Amino acid sequence: MTNDKFQMTNDKLEKEIKSLVAKVIKIPEEKIDLKANLFTDLGVDSLLGVEIFAALDQKYHIDIPEDKLREIQTLEDVINLVRQLKK
Amino acid sequence: MNQDTSAYWRKILKLDEPLSPDPLAEYRSWHGYLRSFFYFLFKVLSVMFFPIQARGMENVPKCPPFILASNHLSVADYPSVVAKLPNEIRDHLHALATKHFYDNPGARFFMKIGSNIIRIDTVEDFFPALRAAACVLRAGAPIFIAPEGTRSETGELLPFKVGVGILAVELNIPVVPVYIHGTFEIIPAGAGMFKPGKISVIYGRPIDPATYIEKKKTVQAYDVYKEFTEELRSRILELSKLPY
């Protein structure tokens, strides 16, 4: 894959995940910063965190272990996690 | 588009995995042999110092599994809720107890006499307890939950944790709303000794999760669990307004 195509795929994934998370946590996409803490800044509790995983599981058919919930803090972490699991 | 995200929740609760041959063995202990004696003493004390009036007992299903969910005011709540229930239900009921109490040897001793206990860590990791509760319900036993997660220090009903909604909706289990009056006055959180008074326990009509299960087809699972939990809270609030 060329660098441009790789970048495009990454951007698309990032956009898709941002939109999906926004929908789950019911906050407009434009208000979600990649580096904002989901739990302290965006009011996500651990059960809503599970719902984010559930939505990702449904969309990308990836098996996300629940203990990964302790490792993610930001939307960026979520995106990186999906990238890792999609490989 | 199908919004049903419950497949992941089912995976977390291990609902599609087979049960062990005796899934309830983990919660049984020798303490159970003292249970009848414990409730006999509790009844004697209650007759003398805090008479318990129970209403709506016909709303408690005859056949488990079901969930009893009540407000939480005092350590006397659980024994008050089960005091008038048939021994068969009382002895099979499993109660969720926070690690704060469970990890205290003295409190654990009495809790295990009073009920079959599932330890729950509401702060760091409540999934093991949620899985354990799901397993107990799948094995056909009833469960007692205080969805506030802690005793109310003011007597007011606190917000509810969503766990009860997850269990009810994913396992299709009816939930009996229960309101307890009076235990806050008799022995509130932090009190060392009880005061005489009167306790009233009201069992409301069970909430059938069927409509919520249907709703999951179009609404994300978490919102459905939350909505169910809100209905439960409203129903307990309604019971709280009935004459004491």
Shape of chain A: globular
Question: What strand line-up does the widest sheet of chain B have?
Answer: 1-7-6-2-5-3-4
Number of spatially distinct domains of chain A: 1
Look at the structure and name the CATH superfamily of chain A: ACP-like
Could you tell me the strand content of chain B as a percent range? 5-15%
Kindly state the percentage of residues in helix of chain B. Answer: 40-55%
CATH class of chain B: Alpha Beta
State the distance separating the first and last CA atoms of chain B: 48 Å
**What is the CATH architecture assignment of chain B?**
3-Layer(aba) Sandwich
Secondary-structure element order of chain A, N to C? HHH
List segments of chain A where confidence is low: pLDDT < 50 over at least 5 consecutive residues: none
Secondary structure blueprint with pairings:
The complex is a heterodimer of chains A (87) and B (244).
Chain A: H1 3-25, H2 46-60, H3 75-86
Chain B: H1 6-13, H2 35-49, E1 52-55, E2 67-70, H3 77-83, H4 87-92, E3 94-98, H5 99-102, H6 105-114, E4 116-120, H7 127-138, E5 143-145, H8 163-171, E6 175-181, H9 183-186, E7 199-203, H10 210-215, H11 221-240
Description:
The complex is a heterodimer of chains A (87) and B (244). Helices cover 57% and strands 0% of the residues of chain A. Chain A is built from three helices and no strands. In chain A, helix 1 (3-25) packs across helix 3. Chain A is globular. Chain A starts with a helix and ends with a helix. By secondary structure, chain B is an alpha/beta fold. Chain B is built from eleven helices and seven strands. In chain B, helix 8 packs across helix 11 (221-240). The interface between A and B is medium-sized, with 13 and 17 residues.
